[in-house]
Protein: N-acetylmuramoyl-L-alanine amidase AmiC
Organism: Roseateles asaccharophilus
Amino acid sequence: MSANSRRRALRRMGSLALLLQAPTLVRAASAASIVAVRVWPAADYTRVTLESDRPLAAKHFLVDSPDRLVIDIDGLELSPGLRELLGKIKPDDPFIAAVRVGQNQPRVVRIVLDLKQVVAPQIFTLEPVAAYKHRLVFDLYPQQERDPLLALIREKEQAETQAAQAVQDALGELIGRIDRPASVASPQPQPIRPPASAPALSTPAPAPPPSPPSINQNRLDRLIVIALDPGHGGEDPGAIGPTGLREKDVVLAISRKLRDRLNSNPNIRVMMTRDGDFFVPLHERVRKARRVQADLFVSIHADAFITPKARGASVFALSQGGASSTAARWIADKENRADLVGGVNTVAVKDAEVMRAMLDMSTAAQIKDSLKLGSEVLNQIGKVGRLHKRSVEQAGFAVLKAPDMPSILVETAFISNPEEEAKLRDPDYQDELVEALATGIARYFAKNPPLARHRAL
Ligand SMILES: [Zn+2]
């Protein structure tokens, strides 16, 4: 802050103090108070939530060079609660470099977000729901959405190059040790047979430009892509166990382990619908899976039930008609409410509705394949833990509605059961569960080989 602007700010504060003493402004007591501020940074988008005891109205505008997002909030006084926002911006936030808050006018608070990149902001309010009071939400999206399929392929190519390099290094060392001339051509080990057109790894100088790497369509078509969907996240903690274990955290931990386990197969690549603690709307989870043309969709949960005695894992598939049991319907209703707690922008809901209408075209074939996948997974889980029910259940889960890919939702255990909460927390049990899930998926593919895909980049 320059000396000048500091003086200006002081002057403003002085006049504000005077105004506050004026009897006409006694109703300043009716200003909203901030209950909590939360920041959820992620590569997809960063969310800032201001929770208050009454609804807040905000106006915003973007300023460039340097890029800033300015938000004016009506009916609010600067308070220690709001100032907490300053300490909540992490240095690795992909979008926000810094934040400033100030009393712009009496009862108008100005928040200035210094940006690391140009953003497409969405600012909206949410009515009180679950444990939350009124929420004012700023979602900072990148102006250009990154291509998830391209990211997946690049990641795979990088992993392959590194693996090949490691083998070459080891070979080089071995060759050196047995004292052969270095000019002996080293083999080019590759996890996957390279097509004739593939560029040799030991291309002589000049070095090729670093980007963009060429992507071979054949290899792309042969790749098995699995969409893993850790439930909940961000504002939506999911269910909470008796000692405080949160569903959103434990399902992310299990999903990450399962991703690494599946990615160890060179022909498989996992796309996670979220790899961090942020909320992804239900239709967006399905859209992400469809954008990478996934061969499977597996949603991972650990829910609570009405009674703490409920125990055991369950696997669900979509139902076109009614639910297969009252419990299945109850769980589906509960999962489908995630958007309310997680917080979805109702202005952008039109897209969501179009998406939903399209997803309602789910076919009987999808459900048939989902039941096959589900029973393979259920069989394996039954070997490491207790099952809630011995058959795959069905209900109208919004997240299982991709019409073109087998989709299951796995309730790994009831986090509301003290014994199962302890198991979910145990890394060894998580490993067993991951092994069971991976084996179930592998058995499904062994019996139902994926069709050659024609993925378009
Ligand atoms: Zn859940």
